[in-house]
Design brief:
The chain has two helices and eight strands. It has 119 residues and is mostly beta strands. Strand 4 and strand 5 form a beta hairpin.
């Protein structure tokens, strides 16, 4: 499957008119790499949108209000408090600082009806 690594901080740039959105990230269990579940936070500018711990492979969904997206210029930041460097863990020469393995990101307008979202 397709996936991307996020470091301790990753940004989603949402282009278009500011509107209320529902954001879903499909995240691999960080316990594959860490002894404790990390704290994961989503913000738009200085506004906190959601906070959770991720201890299993799952979808993490949260809402981003239109005013928060407008104030942040469409930037949503995802932060985690746990990272590792593969080279330091015996993973070859990879020096990237990795935090969350994200399989997919889905963004939907909060103004859509359930039948419109599924199209």
């Amino acid at each position: 499957g397709v996936w991307r690594w996020a470091s301790d901080r990753a940004s989603l740039r949402i282009v278009g008119p500011a509107q209320a959105l529902h954001i879903t990230l499909s995240i691999e269990s960080p316990l594959r790499y860490f002894d404790q579940a990390p704290l994961v936070r989503a913000t738009a500018g200085t506004r906190e949108l959601a906070v959770t711990t991720i201890s299993a492979t799952r979808d993490w969904a949260f809402d981003a209000p239109a005013d928060a997206l407008a104030a942040s210029g469409g930037m949503v930041t995802i932060e985690t408090n746990r990272t590792f460097v593969p080279a330091e863990a015996g993973g070859g020469a990879d020096q990237r600082r990795l935090g969350l393995r994200v399989f997919s990101i889905h963004i939907a307008s909060k103004s859509l009806t359930p039948s419109e979202v599924s199209r």
